[in-house]
Amino acid sequence: MKKAMVALLAALWVMLGAAVAEESVSEVKLEGVIEAAVEKTILAPYSGVVGDFTASPGDVLASGDALFAIRTTPVYADFDGTVTAVFAQPGDSAASVQERYGALAYMEQTSLYTADCSTTGADSDNENRIVHVGERVYIRSSSNRDRHGEAVVTSVSGKQYTLEVLSEKDMRLGESIKVYRDEDFVSSSCIGSGDLSRVDPKSVTAEGYVLAVHVQPGQQVSRGDLLFEIVPDRLNGMRGGDGSVSMPEDGVLLSISAQSGQAIAKDAPMATYCPRGQVKLVCAVDEDEIASVEVGDELSVTLDAYDGETLKGTVVRIAGASVSGEGAPAFDVTLELEESEHVRIGMNATAVK
Question: CA of 40: how far to CAs of 27, 50, 274, 311, in Å?
């Protein structure tokens, strides 16, 4: 009886050992590192000088987040006035717009009148026959004393001079005027006469391509206000912008080649990134275990940093050549991972089959 019991226990031990051995043989454990499955490049949309930026490799960014600024050529208003017409749109060639319309836009000054004058009719005092550029003067209609205004001398040539009318009360285009130094129109202060004419609209021009338009018809602007932003290169499919180069989609910055303060050419690489969720686990598998793994196998993946969380990984590639320079051959096995907010490029992970 004792011999029978010993034989039974021995048999059970053998069977248990075989089962354990079989289980240990069937389990395959792969260790590797999370890498970017897709790497995309952000190119400079036009030539210019790169401004200061704070982006760094490893930043997790959303679509539309500003990464860099490439300085544009600004076009400012030269005077106070009204934008009467805007012909350029973002993306347009400035040369093409100007060839068709004569300008990117047109502006009219706040005052619509100028005057071509001479010292003819001035008071006999010699001082009244010497006019100075920049002096403020007063004008009045030769035919109606109720129509008057204030002006500034903008140029002088001998007896001839021109005025820019700064303000006026009911004055008429083409009418004759008298010019005075005294606001009470005292005859002894008369410095000549002339005729009112219209101030022509001023054209707004530039060279290059229109990145942004900051005004619209009918808008009042002040001297120094920004009208357009111009860049030197054709904008391939780009319509508008503020000079910023933005993240094209959610993802992680991998590298930055742009440098603040340095010139960059159109289509030059500025940075690389990995789109969100486009990561992989790459494991170096020894030669004696490679036969246990096949493309299409599904494995449980655990991140070393998050021991309690398991992800699904699918084998999508087995390298055809060894990655080992010395020692036993090893082959890269690549697993596609399901998306997880915890997965970060460079993390260590273990996959079990």
Answer: 36, 20, 6, 25
Report the CATH number of the 113-198 domain. Answer: 2.40.30.10
Pairing type for strands 330-337 and 279-286 reads antiparallel
Residue 176 burial (C-beta neighbours within 10 Å; 0-12, 13-18, 19+): middle
User: Does CATH place domain 28-37+277-352 in 2.40.30.170?
Assistant: yes
Three-class SS of the chain: CHHHHHHHHHHHHHHHHHHHHHHHHHCCEEEEEEEECCCEEEECCCCEEECCCCCCCCCEECCCCEEEEECCEEEECCCCEEEEEECCCCCCEHHHHHHHHCCCEEEEECCCEEEEEECCCCCCCHHHHCCCCCCEEEEEECCCCCCEEEEEEEEEECCEEEEEEEEEECCCCCCEEEEECCCCCCHHHEEEEEEEEECCCEEECCCCEEEEECCCCCCEECCCCEEEEEECCCCCCCCCCCCEEECCCCEEEEEECCCCCCEECCCCEEEEEEECCCEEEEEEEECCCHHHCCCCCEEEEEECCEEEEEEEEEEEEECCCCCCCCCCCEEEEEEEECCCCCCCCCCEEEEEC
Task: Flag the least confident range among 96-105, 123-132, 259-268.
Answer: 123-132
Do 292 and 318 meet the contact criterion of CB atoms below 8 Å apart? Answer: no
Mean pLDDT over residues 318-339, rounded? Answer: 88
Give me the pLDDT at residue 353, please: 87
Res. 24: pLDDT tops 50: no
CATH T-level assignment (fold) for domain 40-71+235-274: OB fold (Dihydrolipoamide Acetyltransferase, E2P) (2.40.50)
For 49-65, how does the pLDDT look when each residue is reduced to its tens digit (9 = 90+)? 999 999 999 999 999 99
State how far the Cα of 262 lies from the Cα of 257, in Å rounded to an integer.
Answer: 11
- Tens of pLDDT, residues 259-310: 999 999 999 999 999 999 999 999 999 998 999 999 999 999 999 999 878 9
Give the per-residue pLDDT at 161: 97
